[in-house]
Amino acid sequence: MALRAAACQDRAVPEPDQRLFFLLQQAAHRLRVAADRRCLAAAGITSAQLGALFAVREGGLTQRELAARLGQRESAVTAMVTRLVDAGLVGRSAHPREHRAVVLELTAAGEEALARVAPEVEEFNAQLRAVLGEEGFRRTAEAVGKLAAWPDPLTTR
Question: Which residues contact residue 32 at a Cβ distance below 8 angstroms, ignoring those fewer than 6 apart?
């Protein structure tokens, strides 16, 4: 056992830039799990559904546009929208120009869910600010926003 511990100590610790991808995945998972617990307790929705409700509240989105906004496959968004419609949080109406498309609309129950979860979002952000500091929070939000807007991280060089 001591030999194994010594061998581990001899290994070079990866530079932060070599571990960034792993750290981002780890942080995203931990934050998503914590956010899901809070959202489910407050409003019966997941953090992914919360993101969809925020986007739908902005108005006039089709499912395809929602998928693009969330950075998800259309099939995943179709299933999520079905759950949100079944829960009465989102409604569908005919698209004014595309006969096969529907426009997603937030219902009164969807607005209520957002209102119930708002204090949890504020508390979560306050805790992130406490960990990162105000400047760190702002810079992290800016950097993560850039990553979220990156068109295709696997093929862009």
Answer: 47
Angstrom distances, CA of residue 134 to CA of 35, 59, 66, 141:
20, 31, 30, 11
Tens digit of pLDDT at every position of the chain (157 positions): 444 444 445 556 566 667 888 999 999 999 999 999 999 999 999 999 999 999 999 987 999 999 999 988 999 999 999 999 999 999 999 888 888 888 999 999 999 999 999 999 999 999 999 999 999 999 999 999 998 888 776 665 5
Residues 6 or more apart in contact with residue 61 via CB below 8 angstroms:
55, 69, 103, 104
Q: Which CATH class is domain 43-148?
A: mainly alpha
Whole-prediction pTM value? 0.79
The encoded tokens of residue 92 equal 């569908």
Domain locations along the chain: 43-148
